[in-house]
Design goal:
Helices cover 4% and strands 38% of the residues. The chain is mostly beta strands and 392 residues long. The mean pLDDT is 95. The chain binds fe (ii) ion.
Length: 392
């Protein structure tokens, strides 16, 4: 999925002299994954990249998990998560394992420091609010419905337009990228993919700051946060090129794949990482077989946990679930429509639902914070009505 990009000024040949107007050298940085074998970009800085005036430990940054208890379906409401703070400090992790963490953030103000996650990719789904992510690769404006995909090691600062926003945040120590089956052997999106290069928005404008002063960068590494104080602006890149950079993709640009009978969740897949996938449920026409059942069938995904974050619209297979809720359907127990939902779906022609789903291939743990948001009656919602599932 990553494809070649360049922005700003770069020398004709890599690793050659590239000079500022005053005759001194720009400082080259090769930023890459998997040693020198993975995706990489080459950036040209005004200042020496390793230059840090002061370092300080700000403490651990690991989620606090609790025992799951008996295996059961669970739901959490994030509607009333207290709003406040900047995007990074407002983030609350609700679920996680070694492969991925899932959280929400309701910031009310822009960041006054910079942030770099050196141990994980981050994917910020902007449910509400708009703003700009300022990065060393350039600026990424975002609006509701945008996934903001940020590779490890990207230094950024988020500015909010209206001073309030709501995000669903996915963090993963593995790369987050398009499913391989969407790409040809050269890495280009295939015709059957629900989105393509035209729908991805790489950084557009490069902001180059050559000023000195005192600038704070909080770095997440080794499950802790370090504070770095620089004597120069961290966004000092005059040009870069390569395959590694942040980008946005709007869920509204995801083209749903529909069929005569119910299409399985993989048609909604948007991204994948190690041991998890991200899917987008978007407004779409329902199945058009005359006897089709638009509601999904009950299903046991034996070795995966399923999390859905409900954004907008009426999610027809879920009773008692509201906007901003998250459901967790763990492995070990089938899930599907609640009593009456299947009949209720018959004859429906379309849905306006909007939701983000994350399926993990290892069990998810629940944080102490998630317990405070739990809707404890969720498992009992399958007990209402006739045990066969028919409406009474
Ligand atoms: Fe499911």
């Amino acid at each position: 999925m990553p494809y070649y990009q360049r922005l700003g000024e770069i020398p004709h040949k890599r690793h050659t002299q590239f000079r500022k107007p005053d005759g001194t050298l720009y400082r080259e940085e090769v930023m890459g994954l998997e040693g020198f074998s993975g995706l990489q970009s080459i950036l040209y800085h005004h200042f020496l990249p390793p230059r840090v005036a002061k370092t300080e430990d700000l403490g651990p940054a690991q989620p606090e998990y609790v025992d799951f208890g008996p295996v059961r379906h669970r739901a959490f409401t994030s509607a009333d998560v207290p709003a406040g703070g900047d995007p990074v400090s407002a983030r609350r992790v609700l679920l996680g394992n070694n492969d991925v963490t899932l959280g929400v953030a309701r910031p009310t103000r822009s960041m006054d420091y910079f942030y770099r996650n050196a141990q994980a990719y981050e994917c910020w789904f902007a449910h509400e609010g708009s703003g700009t992510l300022h990065t060393q690769f350039g600026t990424l404006p975002f609006r509701p419905g945008d996934y903001i995909v940020i590779p490890y090691g990207t230094t950024w600062q988020m500015q909010l337009n209206d001073g309030e926003a709501r995000f669903f945040v996915i963090e993963s120590p593995s790369q987050i990228h398009a499913p391989k089956r969407y790409l040809n052997k050269f890495g280009q999106f295939l015709e059957h993919s629900p989105y393509c290069e035209r729908d991805l928005n790489p950084p557009a404008n490069l902001e180059t700051h050559a000023e000195t002063g005192e600038f704070e960068v909080r770095v997440k590494a080794r499950d802790r946060i370090s504070r770095h104080v620089l004597d120069h602006h961290p966004l000092d890149v005059v040009g870069w090129d390569g395959y590694l950079y942040p980008y946005t993709f709007s869920i509204h640009d995801f083209e749903p794949i529909t069929g005569r009978i119910h299409q399985p969740p993989p048609v909604h897949q948007t991204f994948e990482g190690w041991n998890f996938v991200v899917c987008s449920f978007v407004p779409r026409l329902f199945d058009y077989h005359p006897e089709g059942i638009p509601a999904p069938y009950s299903h046991s995904n034996i070795n995966s946990d399923e999390v859905i974050y409900y954004c907008d619209g009426n999610f027809m297979s879920r009773k008692g679930i509201d906007r901003y809720d998250l459901t967790l359907h763990p492995s070990g127990l089938p899930h599907g429509p609640q009593p009456g939902a299947t009949e209720g779906s018959l004859g429906k022609e379309k849905t306006e639902e909007l939701a983000v789903m994350v399926d993990t291939f290892q069990p998810l743990n629940i944080t102490t914070y998630a317990l405070e948001l739990e809707k404890e009656s969720y498992q009992a919602s399958w007990m209402e009505g006739d045990p066969t599932g028919n409406p009474e």
